[in-house]
């Protein structure tokens, strides 16, 4: 048994062996982590007596270290922590890359691991030649260089961005068997810094008749979407920085529109044009895509806001528990409607639930990390997490979501995910 636990500590508060979340605040206790190839987390030695015996005199104590570097990179020993790329065969440049959620901790996604969705590749944009234009129903059309934008007052905010197609394998008849990041990883969280769009729109002088804005990117696809003016005036950012550095090309360099809490397609990368108008353009990405046919025969359109969602990232599919012990269950929760109010965890397939510990600070429209102590007795178990946001919205079970939306959906899947743990400690995705 790992750590310093009393009998009281190990009294379950819910089925399946869930323990009181306050145990995580107790000093001196140690939890076991699920192992995920090729790494195995170990708290008390590697288990290899020879390696442990050499700890006091490793070879790097006897040689000069490497030189300075102009830009730091991850350790070569972490080279397996990369985005999983899922490009389409045709057309070229169309596809996605997934954030490896199962390998990350905290709430900030490293910029180099932020998910990607490209419709026509990553454009090579010279910032000196790039322009952002605001025109249409405004008093005066404006054109900004990147240098102009960098002189405006800026604000920063930690925000998640989630593709509307994230987790769409959940609509399949059979549960997909992949690491959690490889089918839920079209979501990431960064600190975005830029100019409040309301400042630029006020400078242009928006006509009272205007109610929509068509945002267009500078990729060869000229991706464009229609957005309500009210949302853009409320909290949208013309982002120039991500996690303290200038945007990376695959995430919109040199200028990206960031729309807090709204689906990824609305966060237009390589932003070049904002057409202020009085109606949506009804483009491909708001009619043929990101729209769902409901059982009633009506189409669900312009949903925009990403509903509350949570995932257990450890233990998760592809990982293995190393025998009965005390484990920490942890994962991520987020909501496009505001802050996460609580996350409940179940270890008996949803028969009983217990409230998880939330890492602070809990911020609006941002990742929230949750944790839960669990005494696994070696018997089969089904793990679930369920997010509730500050509006009272509760993440639905899968059967509830399908009853509401039908089976024609492809986007906006946010049902509770279930992981089955068998007697050997192997974790699989199940519908439960």
From TrEMBL:
This is Oxidoreductase molybdopterin binding protein. InterPro entries: Ig_E-set (IPR014756), MoCF_OxRdtse_dimer (IPR005066), Mopterin_OxRdtase_euk (IPR008335), OxRdtase_Mopterin-bd_dom (IPR000572), OxRdtase_Mopterin-bd_sf (IPR036374), Sulfite_DH_SoxC (IPR030835). The keyword Cell cycle does not apply. It comes from Hyphomicrobium denitrificans 1NES1. Its cofactor is Mo-molybdopterin. Residues 119-282 form the Oxidoreductase molybdopterin-binding domain. Residues 303-408 form the Moybdenum cofactor oxidoreductase dimerisation domain. Pfam families: Mo-co_dimer (PF03404), Oxidored_molyb (PF00174). One of its GO terms (biological process) is sulfur compound metabolic process.
